[in-house]
Known about the structure:
The chain is mostly helical and 167 residues long. The chain has helices at 3-16, 22-34, 40-55, 58-70, 79-84, 88-103, 117-126, 128-141, 143-156, 161-166. The longest helix is centred in the first third of the chain and has 16 residues, at 40-55. It is globular and about 40 Å long.
Amino acid sequence: LDPARRAVAHMAAAVLLRYPDDDARAAAATARDAVDDLPAPVRERLAGLAGAILDGDPRELQADYVATFDLRRRCAMYLSYYAAGDTRRRGAALVRFVEAYRAAGFETTGDELPDYLPTVLELSACGGDDGARIAATLLAAHRDGIEVLRSALAAHGSPWTAAVEAV
Length: 167
C-alpha cells in the first residue's frame, strides 16, 4: 500500500480493534466508509469487521471482546507481552515504546499501555512520515507477537481476526 492507503488501513484497524462501546461503534461506520479505496483483501476484512460491529448486538460484542482480549493470554493486544511476558523485561520494552512515540512527536492518551496495538496503528496513521516509519519499525519488531495474536484469534473464530490480518 502507498503511505496514504496504509494510513487509512491502520487507522481503520485501530478503530475496529478498540472495545466496542458506543463511540467505537459510531467510528466503525466511518471506518467502513473510509476503506472503500483500499485493495480488496484489506477492504473486505476491514469493512466486514465494521459491519459485524455495527450489526451485532452491542452487549454480546462487548462480552465477546472481554472474553477474547482480556481473558485469553494469546489474544493480548499488548505487543511486548509476547516477547517479555509479565516480567521486568517488559518494563524496559514499554519504555522503548514511549521513547519511540516521543521521537515521532506523538502523545498517547494514557488510557492504555504504550505497546497497545491500536495505539501503534494510530501512530502509523496520524504521526506523519516519522510516525509511520517508527510505527513500521515497532510493528516489524513485534511481528512474531502479532502473528501469535492473529493465529489465536483465527483459532477462536473471532471477528477481530480480520483487522489483524488487514494489518
